[in-house]
Amino acid sequence: MLEMFEYDFMQRAFLAGIIIAVLASISGTFVVLRRYSMISETLAHSALVGVAVGLVAGLNPLWMAVVFAIFSAWLIEYLRSYFSLYSDAVLAVLLSGSLATAVIIVSLGGAFNNSLFSYLFGSILSVSNEDLITILIFGTISMVLLLAFSKELYFIAYDEEVAQTSGIKVKLVNFLLVTVVAIIIALSIRVVGSLLIGALMVIPTIAALQYKVGFLYTVLLALAFALVSVACGMTLSFYFSLPSGATIVLCVLVLFILSLIRNKK
Amino acid sequence: MKFKVPIFSVKNLSFIVRGQKILSNISLEIFNSEYVAIIGPNGGGKTTLIRMLLGLEEPTSGEIKLYGKNIKDFKFWDKIGYVPQRASHVDASFPATVQDIVNMGRTSKRGFFSRMNEKDKEAVHDSMVKMGVLHLKDKMVGTLSGGQRQRVMIARALASKPEILILDEPNTGVDILSQKNFYALLAKLNKEERITIVFITHDIGVIADDIGRLFTVNQKAIICNNPKEALSCEEMSELYGIEAHLIHNHKHEH
After folding, report:
1. Which residues numbered 81-120 in B keep a CB inside 8 Å of some CB on A?
2. Which of the two ends of chain B, N or C, has the fewest CB atoms closer than 10 A to its terminal CB?
3. What strands lie across the sheet with B20-30, from one edge to the other?
């Protein structure tokens, strides 16, 4: 089984996968508890616009994905406060609008090829050294921000208004969360793909919630599920030549179903 | 001559939403160590008033001062503990032990990355002891009864060592025995810890002996300095818009 690590691309993919599993599961816990699950799907599609621009303009698609996802996150936060009663509709509009824009840009630029396919569903072959460095830099920044504000994020997830009355800058922390989530999603699309990254953020936390344990153990369980899924998914992807994003998501889905059965009353 | 400085000072406060007057020209003051109850009909503006005192809503006109400072410039929010109306309705799937919830009360006192220090741990422990929930600290909050959850929420508010405790009908969904114990606890916090209490309730007959002043809010505010005698049946009928009968509380007549 270890023979797969003889290949440089697998070493890079595994390292990137582990970083993404850590980031996606920890940020995913806050996303789920804040009831922001749909935001990850929307941001993933916005990141795809960045990829499309990058592919057509010859710029680094991953950097462009980060830029577009952050811009979209800020736009979502602004629109959510403006259309507070219809915040889910805002997400739906941006999701479909982003996908349509990405497809048109790629079609006009004649870049609708395997390269885009790998960004949609993830590919272990596609993680370059440059990608790995980008994932490491932005991943470290995201992790530091998540750890710095974890107690505020947890309090806000529990009760936004009570958190605000205790002196926490709720708007600022919410803004920070969506920015970090945007960065993590953009980084993840190399390995997991834009259509499936939302699942890697949400499902490990949903699976961990089935065990009905305190916050710290919920985060650790979500982290463990994400790491196991990424490791198993990438191995299956290598040996059966399958898109890595799909195999990772199916693995985490199996863990979720097992958690559901084990904890069913 | 020494003047009392009010904790809350409200002047000519009005709140209008889409042309509908929710609060009209309210002026009141709340002083240190007071126990104030707020009553009024549903939709009369009690919760809106509280939300404005907490900076959650902006008034259409008027002024709110906290410790003599305009509410917009006020920074010491850890002096205020807030227990909202829905406090006992916790999402059962939320991953939190009692300890996790009470720890939240120390959030704004801790710096970035910092773990709970001895002072934080002591404050959390003390508030759990005060509210009688220490033995529940490792229990998931979603598994507790309404009364237990209510005490946990107050323990969270107390963990920041507040000078004021604001409670918005925290008894909703709580059984009668727990409510009685709860009122006794509030009275104790006010008398022994000198914590100022502002409390929205409908159970005025039960706590009339404990409270110092009563505010009735139905668009306008009427302040009663002697809550035991101030509200006649006629006044209650006018306030709630229905015929009211006083049910006497005999607990001190034996």
Report:
1. 82, 84, 93-97, 99-101, 103-105, 107-108, 110, 112-113
2. N
3. B20-30, B8-17, B61-66, B69-70
Cβ count near B142 (within 10 Å): 15
Do residues A19 and A180 make contact, with C-beta atoms less than 8 angstroms apart? no
Q: B61-107 pLDDT, tens per residue?
A: 999 999 989 998 988 888 999 998 766 667 778 999 999 999 999 99
Contact (CB<8Å) B112/A155? no
Confidence (pTM): 0.86
pLDDT of residue A153: 94
Asked if A73 and A181 count as a contact pair (C-beta separation under 8 A), the reply is yes
CA dist., res. B99 & res. A214, Å (int): 9
pLDDT digits 0-9 by tens, A3-21: 888 888 889 989 999 999 9
Under DSSP, is residue B63 helix (H, G, I), strand (E, B) or coil?
A: strand
How many contacts does A have with B, using Cβ atoms within 8 A?
73
CATH 3.40.30.10 fits A2-260, yes or no: no
Report the pLDDT value the prediction gives residue B88, as an integer from 0 to 100: 61
Q: Measured between beta carbons, which residues in chain B are less than 8 angstroms from residue A151?
A: 103-104, 107, 110
Q: How is residue A190 written in tokens?
A: 């190399």
- For chain A, what's the residue count? 265
Residues of B in contact with A34 (CB under 8 A): none
Contact A158 B84 (CB under 8 A): no
Q: Is the dihedral of CA A59, A61, A66, A72 positive or negative?
A: positive
Q: Are A208 and A197 in contact (CB under 8 A)?
A: no
Q: What is the pLDDT of residue B254?
A: 36
Task: Parse chain A into domains and list their residue ranges.
Answer: 2-260
Backbone conformation region of residue B161, classed left if phi is above 0, alpha if psi is from -120 to 50, else beta:
left
The maximal CA–CA distance of chain B, rounded, in angstroms, is 58
Asked if this assembly's ipTM is beyond 0.85, the reply is no
